[in-house]
Amino acid sequence: MEMKITILVLILGVSLMAAAIEWKATVGQEGRLRWEHGVENANSIRWERDKRQIAYWADGTFKLEPGYNLTSGESWTTLVINNVTKDDAGNYTCQANIIFGPPEATGRVAGHLQVEGDGDEDNHPGTNLGSLSHGTQLPTTDLSSYGNTLNLCDRTDQKTRTTYHTLQEMEMKITILVLILGVSLMAAAIEWKATVGQEGRLRWEHGVENANSIRWERDKRQIAYWADGTFKLEPGYNLTSGESWTTLVINNVTKDDAGNYTCQANIIFGPPEATGRVAGHLQVEDARLPDSGSTVHGSLFTGLLMGGGALLLVTLLQP
Question: Is the CATH code 2.60.40.10 the one for domain 2-118+158-186?
């Protein structure tokens, strides 16, 4: 029951972190996509637009695509679009985390940028009203014959806009659902088993190829982790890892080792999707005494003896 509640809290927590944001910007002006991620002193920020990297870490350096700027504080970040165009409208995602930090020190957001205006308001031809004298009659055009056509075009344009916004909303909802389901799958529980007095092995196939950061915790107590640029391991434990798996080894299992364990695997300076998390429970069993041949033989002898005695008793009781 406790394990299920833990998993549910993890899923709900990440679902809230992945909630959508609606940003707005105007064509020809500066656009600012601000997000309060809440991860204090985050030292890794990654912005993407429709899975295209905009602001990100790569090869140990921070890179920023042309036309963008980035400002960040202790618990917030803002992606700045220098000169907004219609093409800037779309879906944006961001991840903020602390490198070598705990698994919970990670935030993700998905949002949509709505761009208003067409940028050519000053380019429409028209009459210079300032040059007209009082009483001048403006030229008019009889549009009565075109009324039905104009109304039809206006209704068609409204339907097109409505359909476009509906598709955008559906795309946004699908994006959020995929994020939530993806993180929910990553947070799925595992059940490990170990025996008192023996070596315990908690293996997890995280699927993050060439992960260079592994962090194991037991009831929020750090066991194997990076800190101050070095990898640290608590006494009584060992760690083995491969390209897409990791195993926490308990050298000598005791009853106290039973409990909830979590692990995070990721690639430092890697993309947001190159992160895996798992929560699991270790069940510890008592050592079983091996069955001896004498016990089996003794039980068989006892059974035969009782059966023979019962048969003899029935024979004696017969008239």
Answer: yes
